[in-house]
From TrEMBL:
Protein name (record): Cell wall phosphotransferase
Residue ranges of domain Aminoglycoside phosphotransferase in the record: 33-252
GO MF annotation, one: ATP binding
Pfam families recorded: APH
Matches recorded under InterPro entries: Aminoglycoside_PTrfase (IPR002575), Kinase-like_dom_sf (IPR011009)
Keywords: ATP-binding, Nucleotide-binding
Superkingdom in the source lineage: Bacteria
Amino acid sequence: MLVIYGENNLLQTREIALNRWLSEQFNNSHIALKPLTGDAGFRRYFRFEHKKNSYIAVDAPSTYCNNQAFIDIQANIKQAGILVPELKYVDNQNGFFCLSDLGDTMLADKLSLSSMKYCYQQAMALIPQLASLNVANLAAFDDDFVQMELNIFVEWLLGEHLAITLNEQELHQLQQCFDVLKQNISAQPKVFMHRDFHSRNLMWLEQGIAVIDFQDAVHGPVTYDIVSLLRDCYVKWPNEQVVELFDYFVSTYGAYLIDEQIDRATWWRWFELTGLQRHVKAAGIFARLKHRDGKDGYLKDIPLTLAYIIDVSSHYPELEYLHHLVKTTVVPALEARSNKQ
């Protein structure tokens, strides 16, 4: 755990400072903060009311959070006509924000087998709008970036969480699989990429779908956001529905996203292997949240990410070692660890 940030007295001190700052913005009014469930990062969220209007307060310590990126990307997305939280007040130096309140209804809350087609079609319409945004100041989702994410799986899930040690040959075989995933990402056209475009980061409003948690956007592969949406780390849909929605996306928006003619098989490989890279990363992140950050709420989501990895890798012979490793070593080790608790 990061003890420096995790100390209760520091959290309380920041909350008091946030409350004082908000009071100053609202004419020294009394502000009663109600904690909200946080994200997987270091930000903390609170809801409060003032004169019958509801707001969201954010505590985002600049030591851990890129607050300027949040400000810049919010402006970029808003300018494109996409719904985002409004920045009411900002103290960038201290990492305090006051945002408009988009409510509690996420896309995830609207999804069912009967509604998913309509809901996802509404959400995926935002992807080409996002893809067209300016990428001048975004980090590149390049080989080094992708490798860094894949290493999280080895260090935190295999090593820290499951105490699995790979020998030199096994590490080499795993890296060969990682290289396939890196090559797949490198081959794709690059666009503005939200990087966490899924059902919990899309708010369902009367006037449309709003986008949140966009501060980690990068310049990355064209299929990343659509696979983040359709192969969500937190929910799994029947493959037939996923394929149908994928085909709808490509036929409706493919030509808009990519100038050149790309066949369906290429789109599908891009989609599958990009999703696989994301799930390998996510499995590692969920373990890291537990062991580094003291957040164990994401451990329950690791099995789904591993199920995605096993399923997709089974269709690609060049990923046979990754498939075998996760199916015969990682999953049994995870189940054994869970049974001990």
